[in-house]
Every structure is written in structure tokens, then in C-alpha cells.
Amino acid sequence: GPDDWGQFRSLARDFAARMGHEGGYCIMQHYPGTSSYIARTWAVITELKQIAPKMKLLEMQTACMEQVRARKITAAWLKKYGRELKGIISADDCYSQKGINAAVEAARRRDVIRTAAGNTLEGMQMVKAGTLQAITYQSAEIDGMLPLQLAADWFRGLTVEPIRYLPVHIITAEDVDLFLSVREHPFEVNTEILRKSIGSGDVEGTDRFFSDLRQEVNRPGTVTRESLYGFLIEILAHLISIIREKDLETSRLSCDGSNLYKNLFMQKNLDNALQWLHSLALEAAGASFREGRTHALRSSDPVDAAIAYIRGNFTRPLSLKTLAAIYGLSPNYLGQRIRVRTGMKFNDLVNRLRVEHAQNLLAHTAMSARQAAVRSGFADPDYFLYVFRKYTGSFPADYVKSLAPGWNRPSDPENR
User: Fold this and answer.
1) Comparing C-alpha atoms, which of 222, 212, 64 is closest to residue 141?
2) Pairing with 41, which of 236, 312, 318, 403 sits 20 to 30 Å away (CA)?
3) Is the peptide bond before 263 cis (omega within 30 degrees of 0)?
4) How do the domains of the chain map onto residue ranges?
5) What's residue 113's pLDDT?
6) Which helix (H) or strand (E) holds 210?
């Protein structure tokens, strides 16, 4: 893949030239514990020590690729070091860089030299706009093609060199238009959402991420096959990083990272690869949730804990598959045990809780049926009417009319 050490040594040389080979600088680092964290930090430091001894490293921190955190860190640097801070070099040309730029603009310090690892569409647009002076060339398309080609050569019995790097190049205002002109339509899927969802144990959020990804992938003309594989490799890298950071332990996540990459490449087609990665992400989110869930949800019986979770979260999107992933059970087994314990199937239990909640809202608030449906967890108003009538024997409007005579239901402020 990309030669991070070579790329960042090259970027450091460009950075030094723009700084006039002197002055203070800061480094916004990558995720701790990753190879990029090491390479994109120490390649800069060691290179500048040699070629620009008058340049001084003031501080380095990681924003974990989060825009808000990057803005806060940068604002603190600008306040602490003032004019002594002449440049910032970032391990990410997208989320971290947006935060850096926001802080620089707020402090009216457009004189600060900014370079970063690239080359996302957002990063290239910043270079074109002049809010970012240089980025590294790290094509997701070629990055995706390279491991596929190596895997294909390996299976064919061809000689595969131990290391094969992408070309090293620094993109600046002089040639950014060339790269923008050949850039295909980008993914409209934010991998930071996936990292946060898994890290916080949000299984539903993880599931939604892959649903959005499938829609994006199936959109005509969006991406090439090679680009998608490169994107899946990036997602797997995020997963492995989170697994190591949180020390997650499940049947598949405890294996060596190299085996996970091999499993990804062994999938028969793109759809299988995406499905395998989806299930792995759900497993990681479930493991993360189990480690961080509150004491109230910790139970010696995971079925009891799952039922308690349903009763406390029925207004949110719920599925048997994601709930099973949270508690480390198979969907079929969990569904069977829920039916034994409650006398209802999973969907019936969720719908009954939602209908009871909607009844309470209709009786004690001025909400319309549509508003009560949304507040109770129903995404489809028509389906809500069907389910409501199934469990109560009447439609919401008839239910409101059937309330005891003299029932003082709040009036709708809009209709007063």
C-alpha cells in the first residue's frame, strides 16, 4: 500500500520549504497504536531534524480523526503558542483537517502553513481553495487494486515481493486540478460513524452504517470494483484498530489481524465480502457493548438482559439480529427464548410495547396519531395504523373517542 514513511518524509520536505526551514510547528497525529500513527509522526520529526534543524516541534496530539476534537486541540495550540506556531502537519486531510482549518479561521491565522496526508476529495478541494497547501497522493482506487493484484499473483504461484508501495507524490495547487479531474464520484459514507458506533457499542448504528453503504454501492456509476475493495480493506483496518484499542474478545475477533485480512480476500465476491465484514462489525459492536453496558443490564442470563433491553429501548430501531449480536447469541435461539419467557414473538413484544406507549401518548398529550407513531418507534404511519388496530381493535382516532366521558385530553395548541 502507501509508503507512509516515504510519503511523509517527502511531505516534511515540502512543509519545511514553505516554512522557510525555521519556526515552530505542531503535529496532529493519527489513531494511536496504528502504523500510520507511528509513520506519520516520526517520519516528519526525523526528516525535519536532518534538513531543518531550526524548526522546533512545539507539540503533538491525536484528535482520533474527529473534527470537533481537532478544532479544540488546534485552538489551544494557537492560544498557547501564538505567533510562534507557524505550521501544522496533519495525519488526515479530511476530518482532522476540517477541524484545524476551522480553528485557524476563527483565530484569523490564515498565515499558518497546513499540510496533510491525503488525498480525499475534501482534501483536494481544500488544496484548490488554498486552505491546505499540500497533501500526499494516496489513491483509494490504486490502494484497493494493489492488494487484489498481489493476492491474485500469489494464488497463481507467481513471485510476490515482500513489499510493494504506491508511488510517492505530493499534491499541491499546481497539479491538484489534474487529480480532481479524474476523481470518480466519492463514497457518501462516513467511516468515522462506524468507528464511533463500534467503539460505543452501538449495534444499531453499526447496522445502519452498512445499510447506507449497500445503498451507496448499488447506486449506478458510483464506484469501481477495485475502489470498493480498497474501501472494505480500510473498514477492516478500522475494525482491527478498535479491537486492539478496546481489547475485545469474541470467537473471531481474537484471531490475528493477518488472518482477518486473509478471510476478507477469501470471500467469493464483493457481496459476500461486504456481508462478512458487516457480520464482523456487528460482532465487534456487540462485544464493545457487553464490555461497556451499565450494571442494570449485566445479567447472568443474557436472555433476561435482552428482554430488559427491549423494554427500555423499544422506541428506538430494534432488530432480532442486532440484539442477538449484543448478547452473543444466535438470532434463532434468542427469538425462541424470548417467546418462552414472554409468550410472544420478538416482533409481537416490540409492537405491543410500542402500541401501549402510543396509547399513553394519545390519552395524555395533544399528539396526533402520526406524532405518537414516530415517538413510539414506528417509522411507517400506515404500518402503525395496522398494528394499533391489531392490538387494540380500533384505529387511533376511534381509541381517542372511546376514552371515558369527561376525559380531559390536552388540546392541540395548533387547533386552539
Assistant:
1) 222
2) 236
3) no
4) 4-138, 191-292, 299-343, 359-415
5) 97
6) helix 203-218
Assigned C-alpha cell, 168? 510517492
Overall average pLDDT of the 314-335 stretch: 86
What Rg do the C-alpha atoms of the chain give, in angstroms? 26
Work out the burial of residue 249: count CB atoms within 10 Å of its CB; fewer than 13 is exposed, 13-18 middle, 19 or more buried. exposed
pLDDT exceeds 50 at position 104:
yes
Spatial separation of the C-alpha atoms in residues 103 and 75, rounded to whole Å: 5
| Distance separating alpha carbons of residues 117 and 91, to the nearest angstrom | 5
List, for residues 1-23, the tens digit of each pLDDT value. Answer: 677 888 899 999 999 999 999 99
Q: Which fold has domain 4-138?
A: Rossmann fold (3.40.50)
What does the alpha-carbon distance between residue 143 and residue 155 come to, in Å, rounded to a whole number?
A: 19
The CA–CA distances, whole Å, from 362 to 139, 235, 369 equal 55, 44, 7
Q: Region 194-215: what's the mean pLDDT? A: 79
Which grid coordinates belong to 178?
Answer: 489534474
Scanning the structure block, which residue is given the C-alpha cell 469474541?
Answer: 250
Residues in the chain: 416
